[in-house]
Design the sequence.
């Protein structure tokens, strides 16, 4: 949701009251979407690359263990 800031002057001095209007996304103007092809590659640090590679190997290992467990329960190894 977008908040629009509006100010109202009280009329005396520099005192003013802030009002915020909340606009529901269904009633808001549509925004122009970005094209992902125009953005290019993301730059990643070594620690981010290491974390993603580690996560990939972890997920591959968990999938292998799940298939092994299914094969073991089905009696494929006896």
Sequence:
């Amino acid at each position: 949701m977008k908040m629009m800031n509006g100010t109202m002057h009280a009329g005396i001095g520099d005192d003013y009251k802030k009002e915020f209007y909340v606009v529901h996304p269904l009633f808001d103007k549509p925004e122009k979407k970005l094209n992902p092809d125009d953005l290019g590659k993301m730059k990643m640090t070594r620690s981010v690359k290491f974390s993603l590679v580690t996560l990939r190997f972890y997920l591959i290992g968990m999938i292998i263990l799940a298939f092994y467990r299914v094969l073991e329960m089905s009696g494929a190894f006896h």
Q: What stands out?
A: Residues 2-74 form one domain. The mean pLDDT is 84.
